[in-house]
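Field reference: "sequence" (input) and "structure" (output). Example, GTP pyrophosphokinase:
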Amino acid sequence: MRRFAQIREDFTRMMLGYRFGMEQVATRLEILREEFAELHLDNPIEHISTRVKSPESILEKAARQGVELEIPALREHITDIAGVRVICSFVADVYRLMTALTEQADISVRVVKDYIANPKPNGYRSLHVILEIPVFLSSGPVQVPVEVQFRTVAMDFWASTEHKIFYKYEGDVPAHLRQRITDAAATAARMDEEMAQLHRAVHGTD
């Protein structure tokens, strides 16, 4: 019984750390949004959303990946327990915000996956960054990994629609629809470029 109580306490502490880390990243991004809006008369962030995986989802993913059900193993191998999604106006904003966030002194970067420069075969585009941010608990500081996804509005609309289609077909999407999904991703990419060109024509800058 004591062993179970300790496991529960450790897991609760871990989940609190992820929630606090996620909230800190979201706060840093909100600060950047207000700074750009007030000082640069520019708001590159359209929307910010956050989520923490449920314990059930964490355990299911650990089982799929063969990860040991111990706190250190979960922290090391399940890197998307805490997530922040940032929706930007333009592709240039994606990289500008990523740089502004990750260059902060107490944030370190684990992994960058640039699916904008290198889209997935189905057309998925987004910039994924797994970073670590310190969370100061009563027991001491903890480095918490948080996955941040940066997308444009067009990328997010495509990804949301693609997810709904795959959910409806339980992953078994007919080939002709898969091709249309991929074609739609190319259309979204062209729209991003066209809107960026319009922005430059009006403002003379990215």
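The helical segments are 2-39, 55-65, 71-77, 91-102, 153-168, 175-203.
Residues 2-154 form a domain with the Beta Polymerase; domain 2 fold (CATH 3.30.460.10).
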